[in-house]
Amino acid sequence: xxxxxxxxxxxxxxxxxxxxxxxxxxxxxxxxxxxxxxxxxxxxxxxxxxxxxxxxxxxxxxxxxxxxxxxxxxxxxxxxxxxxxxxxxxxxxxxxxxxxxxxxxxxxxxxxxxxxxxxxxxxxxxxxxxxxxxxxxxxxxxxxxxxxxxxxxxxxxxxxxxxxxxxxxxxxxxxxxxxxxxxxxxxxxxxxxxxxxxxxxxxxxxxxxxxxxxxxxxxxxxxxxxxxxxxxxxxxxxxxxxxxxxxxxxxxxxxxxxxxxxxxxxxxxxxxxxxxxxxxxxxxxxxxxxxxxxxxxxxxxxxxxxxxxxxxxxxxxxxxxxxxxxxxxxxxxxxxxxxxxxxxxxxxxxxxxxxxxxxxxxxxxxxxxxxxxxxxxxxxxxxxxxxxx
Length: 389
Ligand SMILES: *Cc1c(COP(=O)(O)O)cnc(C)c1O
Hints:
By secondary structure, the protein is an alpha/beta fold. The protein starts with 7 loop residues before the first strand and ends with a strand. It has 2 domains: 46-241, Alanine racemase (TIM Barrel, Alpha-Beta Barrel), CATH 3.20.20.10; 259-388, Lyase, Ornithine Decarboxylase, Chain A, domain 1 (Beta Barrel), CATH 2.40.37.10. The radius of gyration is 24 Å and the shape is elongated. A hairpin with a 5-residue loop joins β12 (276-277) and β13. The chain has helices spanning 31-45, 55-59, 63-73, 83-91, 109-114, 124-131, 157-166, 188-203, 216-221, 223-227, 340-344, 361-367, 372-378, and strands at 8-11, 26-30, 49-53, 77-80, 98-100, 119-121, 137-142, 170-176, 211-214, 233-236, 259-271, 276-277, 283-284, 289-294, 311-314, 317-320, 330-333, 350-354, 385-388. Strands 1, 2, 11, 14, 15, 16, 17, 18 and 19 form a 9-stranded mixed β-sheet that branches. An 8-stranded parallel β-sheet has the order 5-4-3-10-9-8-7-6. Strands 12-13 form a two-stranded antiparallel ribbon. The structure holds pyridoxal-5'-phosphate.
């Protein structure tokens, strides 16, 4: 049993009593790396402030711990996707301004006031509901400059902004938009979105609304264009967690991956040629082979699609899976039983699914034909998060 030491705390939704489990995976969250990322991103964003995006359980890293650490390290504001995520942060005692990025339930506007959460005015209908609300509210008007998800058109924005500003119970704290392609190198489309936003601002009667538009990708890859655009906040998500949105774009800031996903070797054996492994018997040993069974599977959020091309790191060596990844376990091919690696690996040893050294979250995402965002968000609640300072 790996017991928490004073330097770390382990949190798990599976059971508050049995947080650590010697036969299951563990996500180690390096709060020192998170602090480092917040500092370098805040420096990069300056003079704009950093809004730390902690939606979806802080991309699987744990909302409250991450939010507290980001605030300590210099984040000025927080953002979540849903009302309940913001309420949970308030219930944990966090006082920092919080923007709910998603469209509001206009029947629940008093909840935003109750928890002091800023509302996204995402359409003319929402603006009308806000203007006739009976409670004081903080509002950020969202403009759709090309993402095509939420927001009013740039043409409608000036009138809607005036409507919001004319209502004495509303405090308009932001005007914002969101990029669709900022993670592509030198994106012309992102520049076009920026231009549409700038044109809108030039037409505004009362221009003194704080502006925010950059996500991680815009902050990292569009920095020059961003520097020429007046804005008071950037909304950083993935980069906080130490992972750049694009796998291969050159980086001018040093990010440190915050999460390591590891799992123990729970069983070892040597199989003879012709032995099949796992569901579907899709893998068969062609020679005597040492096989390690790891206590991690797709039920923990590790993608089953990694079965064929994925690798894990064990004893500083990258090794492929043997057969299909199961719900709670997977098997790894350690090579010849007499080989150096097979000789060194013992039951109870730790294998790494992803971390800073590699495989990285980008590697896993590539094997699973997705993006690192999804790898983090899929990490199941039963995986204990082990916070190290
Ligand atoms: C999730 C989100 C972000 C953060 O994006 P990253 O790419 O993770 O930095 C910023 N703005 C909005 C509107 C979002 O939904």
